[in-house]
Amino acid sequence: MIPGPFQRVMFALYTVIFFLYLLGPLVVMGVSAFNTPQYPQVWPIDGLTLDWFAALFADQDMMTGLKMSLWIGLLVVCISVPIGLAGAIIMTQIQPRVRSLYYLVVVSPVLTPGIIIGISTVVFWRQFTGQTGTRFLYDGVVLTVLGQASFISAYCMLIILARLQRFDRSQEEAALDLGASYPQVFRHILLPFLKPALASAAVLAFLSSFENYNTTTFAILSDKTLTTVLAGRVRQGSTPAISALAVVIVAVTVIGAIAFEIYKRRADAAAARRQRAALEAEEAELAGTPTPAMG
Amino acid sequence: MNGSLAFIFGLPLAVVVLFFALSAYERRRGIATGPGFFQRNGLAVGLYLVLAVGFWAFFIILLPQLAMVDMSFRPKLPPAQMGGPKDLYTLENYRYFLFGSTTSTAEWNWLHIKAFFLTIGVSILITLINFAICYPLAFHMAQSASAARLRVLLLLLILPYWVNEILRAFAFRVLLSSGGIINQLLMGSGLTHEPIDFLGADVGLYMGLSYAYLLMMIFPLYNAIESLDRNQVEAARDLGAPWWHIHAFIVLPHAKPGIASGCTLVFMLTAGALAAPLVLGGPRTLWFTPIVYDRFYQAFNWPQGAAYAFILLVSCILFVLVVLKAFRLSLGEITR
Amino acid sequence: MAAAVELEGVNVTFGDFVAVRDANLTIEPGEFFSFLGPSGCGKTTLLRTISGFIEPTRGQVKIGGQDMKGIGPNKRPTALIFQNLALFPMMTVAENIGYGLRVRGVPRHERDEKVKTLLIQVALSEHGHKKVSELSGGQKQRVAIARALAVEPSVLLLDEPLSALDLKLRQHMRAELRAIQKRVGITFIYITHDQGEALTMSDRIAVMNAGVIEQVGDGRAVYAEPRTPFVASFVGENNRIRGRVSAVEDGFATLDTPLGALKGRNPVALSVGQEALLFVRPEVLRLHANGGTSGFAGETLDVAYEGSVSHITLRVKTGQKVTASVGGGVPLPAAGEELHLGFTPEDGLLLALPEGHGR
Ligand SMILES: Nc1ncnc2c1ncn2[C@@H]1O[C@H](COP(=O)(O)OP(=O)(O)OP(=O)(O)O)[C@@H](O)[C@H]1O
Ligand SMILES: [Mg+2]
User: According to the UniProt entry, where is the signal peptide (chain C) (predicted)?
Assistant: First the structure.
C-alpha cells in the first residue's frame, strides 16, 4: 500500500509524539539520577554524580525491601507455576459442559483490581487462621504470596495452556504404548514439552510479583517489600535516589533481555542447522544412495 | 464460627465430589469415553492436579472473595464481640457510602460518591483515549511495518514497562512538577510566567494513569490486527474503499476481541490503580482506591473497606459484562 | 499355540456413530496381516482397540489367548507405530529407541547394548546421538520401528507408517519392512489404504468398509476371488455391469444386462431373477474377440499408452465407461473407433447387489 505524502508525514509525526510520550518521562527521570541537585532535576545539569546510586544502596529499608521482594518473587514462582500447570491440564480434561464456568473462576483474578485481591486475601486469612488456630500463617509474606498467586497463577495458566493446546496427544500414547506408567508419561513427555512455556511462566511470574504494588500493599501487613518502601519514599518527597533505582532496574532488565536474545538466537541457529541436516539426509536418500540393507 | 469452617472445607469438597459424580454419570451414559481422570493421570499426578487447582480456585480465589463480601455486610466490632450476638448482617457499610456518618448533617456522602463516579468516568475516558492513541500504531505494527522495524518498535514499547508502576508515576512527577522540565520549557518560551500546577489540577494523575497502562491496550490490539490477512486490506484498497471504510468495516470488526480485551484490562487497571493516585494525586484529589485504602489503614474500619472494595469490584464486573455484551463476545475470547 | 490376536464380535461406537461393527478375526502368530480400506472406514479405531487405547463397546479382544479387557495399553504385549510416528522430539535417537526399556527399569548398560544392536539393525548406528529433527523421513521411520521392536512385543501394530513418505522411499521401505518382519518373526498388523502395499507385503488381508470387515484372505483371494462388490471394486481396477440373473448352471450364471446376455462365475450362488453385478477386470477384456465368449461393443474415447500396457477407455451403449488394459504388441484403436470387447466366463464374476443399493 502506498500512503500519500501527507499521510506519511502525519503518521511520522504521530509516531514521534507517541514515543516521546512513552519514553520521555523515563529519559527525564534517568538524567535526573546523574544530576547533583537534591531535587530530581534535568536541566540545568549542575554536575554529574553517582552519589544517588550510593545513597540508594546505603538505604537500609530499600535493601531489606529488595531482599523481601526477591524472596516473595521466588515463592510466588514456586507456587504459581505448578498451580498454573495444573490449571491448564485440568482445563484440557474437564467436562465440556462445566469448562466455561471453570474458566470464569480461574481467569477472574486477571480482571479483578489488585487492591480487591489484596483486601479479600487479608480478610479471609485473618478469619481462617484465627478459627483454625494457625495464627502463625497470618504473616505478611504468606499473605502476599497467596494474594499475588491468585492472578499470577492465571497468567501462568494462560501461557502454559497456549502451548498445551499444541501438544500432540499421540506422543503421550506412544509412551504409554511402550510401557510407561501415567506418572512417567507426565515426567518424561509432557513436562519436557511444556518446558519453554514453564520457563516463560516462571520469568513472568517473578517479574509480576517483583513489581506488584496494589495487592502487596494490603497483604504485606507490617513487612515491607521494595515497592511498598518505594511508595513510602515517593510520598515523603522526591529524591534522585528514586530515579537511580529506576536506572538500575532498567539496566538489569535490559542486560537480561540481551542475554536472552543471544541465547535464543543460538538455539534458533541450532534448530536451523538440524533442519538443514535433515533435508540433506532426505536428498541423499532420494538420490538413491542405497541405505544399507537390513539384517 | 464452626459453621463457617464447615462451609470453608465443605464447599470445595462438595464441588469436587460433584465433578466426579458428573464425570461418572457421563461415562455411564456413554457421553464421555476414554480413561477416567485418575486412570488417565495416575494417582499421584491426579491428586496434585485436584489439590493444586482446588486450593487455587477455592482458598486463593473464591473463598477470599466470599469472605470479603460477607464482611462487608457485618458491623464493625471489637474482636471479642465477633461472632457474638451483635454480629448480625447489616447494610450499614453501604448506607455509609451513600449517606455518610449518622452524625453528619449532609444529606449525601458527596465526597465518596463523587470520588466513585469520577473514578469510573475518568477510567472510561482514559480507556477510550488510550484506544485512540494506540490504534494507529498497533495497526501500523501489525499490517505494514517491516520485520526489522517491528522488532525495534516492540523493544521500545516494552522498555518502559520493565520499571514498575510507582516509578512510572514518579517519572511523571519529575516531569510535571513546578520546577520540572515542562514548566521550565513553558516559562522559558514565555508562554507563562508562573509554573503551572499540573499535579494539583490532577492533569498529572490522568496523564500518569493513561501512560501507566498504554501497553495493556497496544498488545491486545496488535495481536488481534496481526491475525487479519494483509491481503484482505489490500483487496479492499484495490476496490477503491476509502481508508475510513477499511478501518470501520474490515479492521475493527476483525479486531473486536483485541479491542474488548484491551479496554477491559485498561479500565480495570485504571479504576483499581493505587500507585498513581498516591504518587501523583494532591491532597484534594478525588480517586476511589485511596479512599478504600484509608477505610482500612486510617479509619481501621475493615467491614466498611470491604464494602467499598465490593462496590469497586461490582462496577468492574459490570464494565466487563457491558463490553462483552456490546461486542457480542465470550470471556474466553478476550483473555488470551 | 494360541492365536496372536483374536477379535470376537468387536463393536466400537462413538456416541451414535458405529466406527467398527461386529469384527470377528483370528490372526496367527508370525503373520503379516493387513487391514485395507478407504479413509475413515475404522482401521485406526480397530488398531487402537487392539493396542488398548479404546475399549470395545461390545465384544472381546484376545492377545496370545488372553482376554485383554481392563488391561491398559502400557500393559499389553503390543507396540504401535503411529500414523505420524510420534517420536519424542526432546530425546535423541538412542533415547527414543531405549525409552521402552528405560520405563521397564532395564539397567543402563544392558539398555545401551540393546539400543546399539537395534541401531545397527535399522542402519542408523552413526545417528544414535542425533535429535530426531535431524533425520530424514525414512530414517525417522526406522527409528520408530526400532523403538517399537526394543520392547520385544509379540504383536507390532503399524498405522499407515509409510503414508508420509516420498513414493520412491515408500517402495524401498516396503521391502525393508517385510524383511524385518521375516527376521524378527513376530506378528505384524499393518494398516493401509494403499492396496499395492497390502498386496505386496501381507500374508493375509482384511478389507474393511464403513466399519465392517468385508473379506479376509490372502492377496490372491481378495484380488481374484472377491466376495462382495466393495472388495471387487476397491482392490484393483474393475468394470461393473448391472443386470438380472437369467440362467444358472454349475458354478456359472448368465446375466441379462442392457449390453446383452453376459456370462460369468457364480461363487455366491445367485438364483434366477436376482439382481446382480458383473465384474470384469480391464486386463481380461480382449479386443475384437468373438465367438464362444460373452462380449459387448463400445466406442473408444481415449487411449493411454504406457509402454508395456495401454489403457483404453470406451463408452458402452448405456453411456457407462469401461476400461480395457492390453499388453504391448496389440494394435491400438483410434479414438472414436467402434470396438467389440470379449471375455471368457471364467474371467467374469457375478456378485449380489449390496443391500440398499438401488442404483
Ligand atoms: N474419538 C472419536 N470420536 C468420534 N468419532 C471418531 C473418533 N475417532 C474416530 N472417529 C470416527 O470414526 C471413523 C473411523 O475413524 P478411523 O480413524 O478409524 O478411520 P481410518 O480408517 O483410520 O481412516 P484414515 O485412513 O483416514 O486414517 C471416522 O469417521 C472418524 O470420524
Ligand atoms: Mg487412520
Answer: none
Residue C24, φ and ψ in degrees, nearest 5: -125, 130
Q: What is the pLDDT of residues B5-53, one digit of tens each?
A: 888 899 999 999 998 888 888 877 766 666 778 877 888 889 999 999 9
Q: What strands, in cross-sheet order, belong to the sheet with C286-287?
A: C286-287, C338-343, C294-305, C309-316, C321-327
Cβ pairs bridging B and C (under 8 Å): 9
Q: Nearest C-alpha to atom 31 of ligand 1 is from which residue?
A: C40
CA C212–ligand 2 middle distance (angstroms): 15
Q: How far apart are CA C25 and CA A119, in angstroms?
A: 67
Chain A hits for C53, Cβ within 8 Å? 173, 176-177
Residue with the smallest CA separation from ligand 1 atom 3 is C14
> Alpha helices of C6-67 — where are they, by DSSP H?
43-51
- How far apart CA C349 and CA A127 sit, in angstroms, is 86
Q: Is C111 in the pocket of ligand 1 (CB under 6 A)?
A: no
Q: Please check whether residue C72 touches B, CB under 8 A.
A: yes
- Contact assignment for B174 to A245 by CB distance below 8 Å: no
Task: Kindly state which CATH superfamily the domain A61-236 is placed in.
Answer: MetI-like (1.10.3720.10)
Domain ranges of chain C: 5-229, 239-352
Q: Is the whole-model pTM more than 0.90? A: no
- Find chains touching chain B: ≥3 CB pairs under 8 Å: A, C
What is the CATH number that goes with domain C5-229? Answer: 3.40.50.300
pLDDT in tens, C205-215: 999 999 999 99
With beta carbons under 8 A apart, name residues in chain C contacting A173: 53, 73, 80, 82, 86
Amino acid making up residue A138: Y
Q: Give CA–CA dist B279/C12, Å, rounded.
A: 67
Decide the pairing of beta strands C275-280 and C239-249. antiparallel
Closest CA to A218 of A114, A75, A74: A114
Structural contact between residues B143 and B131, judged by C-beta atoms closer than 8 angstroms: no
Task: Name which residue sits closest to atom 17 of ligand 1, judged by CA.
Answer: C44
Contact between B58 and B11 under an 8 Å Cβ cutoff? The reply is: yes
R_g of chain B, CA atoms, integer Å? 26
Domains C5-229 and C239-352 share a fold: no
Say if residue B290 is preceded by a cis peptide, omega within 30 of 0: no
B40 touching C, CB under 8 A?
no
Q: Residue C193: CB within 6 Å of ligand 1? A: yes
Per CB-CB distance under 8 Å, the chain A contacts of B165 are 211, 213
Chain B hits for A94, CB-CB cut-off 8 Å, are 19
C157 Cα to chain B: minimum distance (Å): 20
- pLDDT reading at C176 higher than 90: no
Nearest residue on chain C to A270, judged by CA atoms?
C134
* Domain residue spans of chain A: 20-58, 61-236
CA distance A63 to chain B (A): 17
Does the distance separating the beta carbons of A294 and C103 come in below 8 Å? no
Asked if C305 reaches chain B (Cβ–Cβ under 8 Å), the answer is: no
List the domains of chain B with CATH numbers: 2-72 (no CATH), 110-334 (1.10.3720.10)
Q: Could you report the per-residue pLDDT of C330-339, keeping only the tens digit for each?
A: 788 888 888 8
CATH 2.40.50.140 fits C239-352, yes or no: yes
| pLDDT, average across residues B253-261 | 91
